[in-house]
Amino acid sequence: MPPAVSAGLLVHRRGAAGLEVLIAHMGGPFWSRRDEGAWSLPKGEFDPDAETPADAAVREFREELGVDPPAGDRVLLGEFRYGSGKRVTVFAVAAGEWEASDLVFGEFEMEWPPRSGRVARFPEVDRIAWAAPADAERLLVAGQRPALAALRARLGGA
């Protein structure tokens, strides 16, 4: 089975302290008490035979956060590989006037507690935050961290 492919959006803005990026804390019981390495860009898997990475990134943003992403140009930052072999294509988009409000997090089902036979629903994301790239570097899952360097390079080292 080939490794999974995902696509996501790295939303950024200029805050009072400089560059900030939007990150999402992963939902569900596995991540509930974790912080470092438990955050992600809004992203998800797609079938490259049925959808482009850019379309998948927008769709996944809507599915995970329940709102449309910022309307600006989506700039390809690159494809990044996780240690597992999974690949994620990341697009940057400036937040502009977009506000992170009225969010309705998507949900997933899983057996919980393990081996109980009961299925429970959990949010894909349980909260979002704006973070400086240095903070996001520590919080994001390792496979997505190179997207931050690509964003900084694209923005001229900001």
Q: What integer value in Å does the Rg equal?
A: 15 Å
Q: How helical, in percent, are the residues?
A: 10-25%
Order of helices and strands: EEEEHEEEEEHH
Which strand-content bin applies to the residues? 35-45%
- The CATH topology assignment is Nucleoside Triphosphate Pyrophosphohydrolase
CATH secondary-structure class: Alpha Beta
**Overall 3D geometry?**
globular
Pfam families: NUDIX
GO molecular function, one term: bis(5'-nucleosyl)-tetraphosphatase (asymmetrical) activity
Protein name: Nudix hydrolase domain-containing protein
GO biological process, one term: ATP biosynthetic process
What does this structure look like?
With 158 residues, the protein is an alpha+beta fold. It is built from three helices and nine strands. A hairpin with a 2-residue loop joins strand 1 and strand 2.
Question: How are the secondary structure elements laid out?
Answer:
Blueprint lengths: L4 E11 L2 E9 L12 E2 L2 E3 L7 H13 L9 E7 L5 E8 L12 E5 L7 E5 L1 E7 L1 H7 L5 H10 L4
Parallel strand pairs: 1-6
Antiparallel strand pairs: 1-2, 1-4, 2-3, 2-9, 5-6, 7-8
Short description:
Helix content is about 20%, strand content about 35%. With about 160 residues, the chain is α+β, with helices and mostly antiparallel strands.
